[in-house]
Amino acid sequence: MGANSCATGLRSRGQISFKIMSVSSLAALAWTCPAVAQTQATPEDSSARTTSSAEQQSASLAFADQAQTSLQSQDSGTPSDTSQVGTAGVADDEREIVITGLRGSLQRNLDLKRTSSGVVDVISAEDIGKFPDSNVAASLQRLPGVSIQRSGSRGEPTGITVRGFGGDFNTTLYDGRRISTATGGRQIDFSTVGVDFIGQLSVLKTPDVSLASSSIGATVNIAFPNAFDRPGFRAAATASGSIQDRAGKVVPTGGLLVSNTFADDTIGILADVIYTRRDTDTNRVYVSGWPGGFYAPCQLTPSCTPAQLAPENKNVVGWFPQQYGAEQQRVQDERVDARISLQYHPSDALMVTLDNNFSRQKVTQNNYAFGVWFNQSDLRNVQLDENGTAIDFTQAGSPTDFTAALNKQILKTNQTGLNVKFDASANLSFEGDVAYAKSWLNPGDVIGSQNGDIGYGGLLGNNLRFTIDGDSKDAFPTISNFGPAGNGARWADTSVIGSHVTVNQTQHNTDELLQFRGNATWKQDNLTIKAGGQYYEDRFRFRNQSTFTNNFWQAYAGYGAPSGRASGIAPLPANLYQGSISLDNFIPDFNGSLPPSVFIFSPVAYQNYLSGLGNPQATPIPGYNPDVKGFTGTFDEQVDPGSVMDVKEKTWALFLNVQFEADIAGMPFHFNAGVRNENTHLRAVGQGRLPLNLTQSAADPTLLSVGAYTEIQPLDSKSNYSYFLPSIDAKLELREDLILRFDASRTLTRPGLNLLNPVLNVGSGQRVNALSASGGNPNLRPYLADNFDIAAEWYYRRNSYFSVDFFLKNVSNFIIAGVTRQSINGVIDPTTGREATFSVSQQVNGPDATVRGVELAWQHVFGDSGFGFQANATFVDTNRPYDDEDISQSGFAVTGLANSANFVGFYDKDGFQIRAALNWRDKYLLQFGQNQNTGSFGAEPTFVNESFQIDLTTSYDITKNFSVFGEALNLNNNQQSTHGRYSNQLLDVFDYGRRFTVGARYRF
């Protein structure tokens, strides 16, 4: 194609896509034609380059066929490091070194990074069944600009943050397809992805318009294997056992993959299955929230009169802990992943792939805890530090609760897809892809959480003292004067412990996702044109049911006769107690003091005991709370009408992408311009009702309930929006080993589907001085970001490079999870006689912000010694940092931003490999909102403290086909801790310990 042909092509493309072309992109495309013509005049320049621009873009997407092609070369004995990338100035004998294993995978990663048109980082499997880490997110954190979030109870990496944008800002794809998730957000939980047979992970930090533009952070593409990646028979098996140091039990993991092609290599089938189990015992100390509000001056002294506590006299700004406690969480995480892929390949021109991916994760958690509840108005002798944090106070009559919970979460996902690729000619090819996925959260009759709460209060309440003496990164609060009526020796005296509240609750969600992608690609010489469209239909259904809704949670509240209460059962049968857990040295290396112990008991046995007392509607039962209506003896859940939601989102997208190669002053130049237009239609349906009154529990004066509601009203909301998303990538090869990049794009991130509920929901179970409600917003608009990258990459020798990347993101339409204090339907608070004030959480689109930063990456291999390292660091900043002095209800800051650094040192030679990974992340703002967020100053923040973790992995190839491996995670016993507005406002500290794994792999 010469200049005239290019002009003709441009005119044709303009007729097709005039409505979706930006002026800037048209100018860029028009400028390509003479450059292409010039390239044709010097064919020897283009022939010297081994990878076309179109191939570069395909590599950056890292679909399964590209991923496994790399694996094929290694499996078949072909040296995996055959490219001449970065060999300038390197001796011929050094070029002939055959690199396999870890170093081979690192070289493949560099090849894909170097040849991609945009900013892409890649992680390849070393071989089938030999991925570098046992968790997808753990692998991704080795990349520059990528850091992870951990599940506190399990210590497992569950999500990633890219350049400060986490969770819903990142799109994860399976072989280029979106995956459904019933959690309600846009993100997936990476602990639900089996890694043993993943071929490759690609992180696209700049968008590919033919794939997606709906991620401000990055697009993560997970490539799975297929039979024709390597024709013939192959199989791989892996088995291991792991143990967490506190759980003390070895649990298994195993996987099997079998693949074959037959019928003259026209039909192929691949199947694999992986079973994974992790057991973790985690110690946790927590404060459920630090609400902000106003103290009366008398509260800084030992006593107050009712007149002194009048609202008009409260004028001292301060924060207090809503609830404080400690618990041990015993978690069992079981997961099954399976895949089957069928392929039909009758000719080189046609490939048809039908595949199905399945996963089911069941997390079972037994918690044993104590907790104490505080009300700001009841605090005396309050000592506030210079920031207003209550660092010392007493509360008279404080009750003490011991809790046990059996929590279950089942997350099941199934995706079926059909892909057809057809080469119509040497220049023209077509691709069609359709997929349907469904995800379930807690399918069937599972109860998500069964809770038993026992303790003492009333006459046995204590004059509890709470003190803080340290920072949240190395200290937790101390309580003293605990025990029945302040007698610490009777802290766990079962003769005075009685029944309190009993909560069962379950979240049932489903997410159905239908998607279609079709495109045509024209390739000729150094020009590639790709055009097509995509359609997504996402339907999310949400329902919560609990014993809060019918008020059954209070059926035997009150603690019983020893506490001076008419309701509640005390003492409880001795056989309910199954032992205790010592709280001595509960969080190693943390300062602070806890009571002696917590009980071990079964919440199921506890509930069965109470149910066995009979039906209080038929026979009077001493200890039954008569305020609870309709309770017949069993703690049945009831659906909360305000939680029922049905959201349907439909999105149409059209895209056009043009790539070309040329020379500028003898330097290869690669240019990629694309445009994408997305049109979204949204419908959200819910059920609304408002409270008519509040009642105070006679069994426990700290408990409130909604006595009655208005009739349920259906609510139906519709909205739509359309966005034009251009993208430009430019790459100039100054030398064979030195590359400059410039990238500019517009991307978006849609709000989580769970945020679109049109209902204001007021739960029936409330607490005194902690009234709360929540509301969604179906009119939320997506975040929009204009993104810019300038990067330099120096590939100075084989398997070694250094890069620096400056990035800038201007983001608008930030969604703010605001909290306002307001009355609802004129309801009266029975504890004050005044109009009740609720803390209402709701999301709105807010201000703009700029995020800027730099990524540094260095990989070096020391010749043929086997030694090498990977190192990277990311430094980020924003014009909207958090202002801890802003106590307005509309405070705003960019979340997720933190400097981070990673260092991986390795040795890989003669079949022996060992890696030590050091991962550091600075303190960052995780979110607005805490477990208890009922204060006067809007949504209080949650910060995650600085963390540093060391992991070690090793393996040895006993034969060509058989190897053994080991893994030691969190060798330095890193602990995860969070805090509120100020650093001494501890929210959580999790001590999840170390994990050790030993296993073997076999392939043939």
Please, could you describe this protein's structure?
With 1004 residues, the protein is mostly beta strands. It is 9% helix and 49% strand. It has a 29-stranded antiparallel sheet that branches. Strand 50 and strand 51 (986-991) form a beta hairpin.
Break the fold down into its secondary structure elements and pairings.
Layout: H1 3-17, H2 23-40, H3 43-47, H4 53-61, H5 64-75, H6 92-95, H7 101-115, E1 120-124, H8 136-140, E2 146-150, E3 157-162, E4 165-166, E5 171-174, E6 177-178, E7 200-204, E8 219-223, E9 234-244, E10 251-262, E11 267-287, E12 292-295, E13 316-319, E14 323-347, E15 350-373, E16 379-384, E17 390-398, E18 400-423, E19 428-441, E20 449-456, E21 462-467, E22 478-480, E23 498-499, E24 504-524, E25 527-546, E26 577-582, E27 597-601, H9 603-611, E28 638-639, E29 645-664, E30 667-688, E31 691-696, E32 703-709, E33 713-735, E34 738-749, E35 760-761, E36 765-767, E37 772-775, E38 783-797, E39 800-812, E40 815-822, E41 838-845, E42 849-861, E43 867-878, E44 900-909, E45 912-921, E46 924-928, E47 941-944, E48 947-957, E49 962-969, E50 976-979, E51 986-991, E52 995-1003
Parallel strand pairs: 5-8, 37-41
Antiparallel strand pairs: 1-7, 2-3, 3-4, 5-6, 7-8, 9-10, 9-52, 10-11, 11-14, 11-51, 12-13, 14-15, 15-18, 16-17, 17-21, 18-19, 18-20, 19-24, 20-23, 20-24, 21-22, 24-25, 25-28, 25-29, 26-27, 29-30, 30-33, 31-32, 32-36, 33-34, 34-38, 35-37, 38-39, 39-42, 40-41, 42-43, 43-44, 44-45, 45-48, 46-47, ...
Helix pairs in contact: 1-2
